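Exercise 7b. Backbone tokens:
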């Protein structure tokens, strides 16, 4: 299966996967100084609420302004949660670069990253880790910490001069740098302009078999983060706003308040924090300036880091933010529900069943996908493009009896197969815990966790397990450790 998938992707995209790993550094453009921007010179404002300690030189002063946040209805691959609305942001300082591992290590004395290198962006840190980093570094540098953490509640003192995360609005304003197009590189982005899953440039989804129509052809997939600042910056001098790692922002995930507003800080409570910009493991469509990805605040990913901000003008007051997450109940009735096309996910589900004794439920379609691999690739792509909701032939009789649903699926085109969307929309999962597992061919979860959280915003998301294909000989041990992590009792 692995060989077939690799071969097929290679043939389709005319790019041998084998050539992905080694040569990418030579293809990167040399870091260059950002274009000089009138009015963007980093001077410390003179009012007495400004930072008494100037930010490090890699911070740029972004002059505030008004912009259209979100995407126009015409933008390909937009989601409904990107409703365009008018937002004004005040001046702020933002780092030109994603936070590096050297910076994280210096403040925290440890480095959680999956890929290692001083100049690589720190990743594999949760939103809570990012908050702690901001406060620790602020204290070390004699600044006032921006955040007060009380369990799952975090309040942000907007008058504090310490390091902080950008708000979602500040992030998008800085990313766009005046552009209104899907990317700050305008209508497309190539693998020479950003570190992402370069086999999947923007609009490839509609053009696998007619790539002549593509503005940007498939490029290198580096399969790793790269040194921050390896590509040209955007028009305001910021590097890697698209790709390399996604970047945590302050806001809880929720629908936008679409009235015109100034310095929005997002919902006061929620269950997932937003991250932006896409990473080395994302398709171009998920690098778009308006794309909103989400994860619970205690989740981490090797595709996700952060970029620091400092106040340029002091905000007034404090922003309270509490978790709306009910405690995950993983000691009640458990259902293992899964969709599998080739059998790998089915095998993993069987192992979970063996270890937990929980009930097993296979999600099946009234009209199944073709059993032919080439055909299913195409069918699955079409289904995702159209956001199909295929009719299911199997149904859970009484979902209310289950507290925890262990949900399995193959990674399909960096997201969930559409029968999973049908399943999630069929039942009320409010207050239930969904513990995802995913069988993949290298892409781990892709954006599937964001897709799930958008479909069932009121469910608790447990820690996920990403399994390479069938999981091989390590599967049993991996499943045991993962069940323990989720407090799911063994048989
Ligand atoms: C339509 C289709 C799309 C796929 N897309 C991806 C992908 O984007 N990333 C990835 O890592 N693997 C991808 N794969 C590989 C599958 O995730 C992998 O083979 C998985 O083990 C299949 O599970 P199953 O046997 O339960 O169907 C894809 C496979 C198919 C058939």
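Sequence design result:
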């Amino acid at each position: 299966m692995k060989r077939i998938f690799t071969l097929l992707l290679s043939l389709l995209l005319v790019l041998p996967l084998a050539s992905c790993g080694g040569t990418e550094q030579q293809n990167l453009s040399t870091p260059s100084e950002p274009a000089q921007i009138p009015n963007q010179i980093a001077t410390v404002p003179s009012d007495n609420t400004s930072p008494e300690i100037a930010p490090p030189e890699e911070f740029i002063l972004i002059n505030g302004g008004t912009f259209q946040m979100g995407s126009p209805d015409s933008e390909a691959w937009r989601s409904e949660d990107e409703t365009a609305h008018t937002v004004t942001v005040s001046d702020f300082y933002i780092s030109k670069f994603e936070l590096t591992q050297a910076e994280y290590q210096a403040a925290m004395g440890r480095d959680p990253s999956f890929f290692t290198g001083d100049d690589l962006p720190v990743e594999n840190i949760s939103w809570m880790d990012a908050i702690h980093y901001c406060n620790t570094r602020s204290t070390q540098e004699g600044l006032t910490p921006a955040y007060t953490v009380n369990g799952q509640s975090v309040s942000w003192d907007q008058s504090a001069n310490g390091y902080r995360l950008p708000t979602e609005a500040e992030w998008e304003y800085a990313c766009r740098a005046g552009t209104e197009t899907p990317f700050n590189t305008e209508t497309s982005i190539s693998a020479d302009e950003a570190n992402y899953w370069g086999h999947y440039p923007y609009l490839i989804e509609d053009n696998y078999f007619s790539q002549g129509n593509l503005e940007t052809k498939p490029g290198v997939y580096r399969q790793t983060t790269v040194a921050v600042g390896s590509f040209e910056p955007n028009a305001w001098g910021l590097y890697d706003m698209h790709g390399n790692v996604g970047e945590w922002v302050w806001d809880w995930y929720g629908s936008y308040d679409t009235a015109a507003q100034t310095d929005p800080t997002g919902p006061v409570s929620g269950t997932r924090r937003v991250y932006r910009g896409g990473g080395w493991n994302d398709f171009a469509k998920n690098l778009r300036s308006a794309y909103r990805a989400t994860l619970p605040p205690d989740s981490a990913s090797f595709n996700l880091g952060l970029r620091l901000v400092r106040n340029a003008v002091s905000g007034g007051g404090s922003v309270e933010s509490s978790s709306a997450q009910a405690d995950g109940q993983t000691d009640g009735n458990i259902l293992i529900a899964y969709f599998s096309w080739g059998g790998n996910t089915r095998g993993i589900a069987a192992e979970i069943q063996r270890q937990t004794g929980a009930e097993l439920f296979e999600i099946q379609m009234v009209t199944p996908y073709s059993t032919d691999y080439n055909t299913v690739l195409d069918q699955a792509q079409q289904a995702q493009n159209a956001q199909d909701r295929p009719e299911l032939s199997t149904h859970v009789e009484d979902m209310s009896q289950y507290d925890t649903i262990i949900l399995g699926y193959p990674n399909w085109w960096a997201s969930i197969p559409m029968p999973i969307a049908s399943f999630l929309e069929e039942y009320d999962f409010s207050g239930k815990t969904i513990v995802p597992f995913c069988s993949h061919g290298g892409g781990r979860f892709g954006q599937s966790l964001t897709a799930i959280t958008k479909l069932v915003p009121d469910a608790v998301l447990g820690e996920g397990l990403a399994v390479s294909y069938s999981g091989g000989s390590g599967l049993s041990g991996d499943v045991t450790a993962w069940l323990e992590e989720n407090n799911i009792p063994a048989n």
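Instructor comment: The chain is about 20% helix and 20% strand. Residues 127-140 form the longest helix (14 residues).
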